[in-house]
Amino acid sequence: MSEKVQNVNVEVAGGYQPSVVNLKKGVPATISYTRTSDQGCLDVVHSRELNFEEALPLNETKTVQINTDQAGEFGFSCGMDMFHGKVVIQ
């Protein structure tokens, strides 16, 4: 990771890998989600706490901007809230 921009790749296949994303506070960040499984509810990823919702087409990468101004743990999940991950900002 560069000190100027943080980008983390998350594979979406039967869950999130990695399921915990660690970011540095105050450094601009993105998470790039790539869905490689056609499991139904994983076709959407959302987070109320981080204010995003993205459709995840199969075998395409979707990137979301993450606001890193505030430290803490923030959850994200699939469209049906069955699979979970979290962003940890320190």
TrEMBL record:
<feature type="domain" description="EfeO-type cupredoxin-like">
    <location>
        <begin position="3"/>
        <end position="89"/>
    </location>
</feature>
<dbReference type="InterPro" id="IPR028096">
    <property type="entry name" value="EfeO_Cupredoxin"/>
</dbReference>
<dbReference type="Pfam" id="PF13473">
    <property type="entry name" value="Cupredoxin_1"/>
</dbReference>
<dbReference type="InterPro" id="IPR008972">
    <property type="entry name" value="Cupredoxin"/>
</dbReference>
<protein>
    <submittedName>
        <fullName>Cupredoxin domain-containing protein</fullName>
    </submittedName>
</protein>
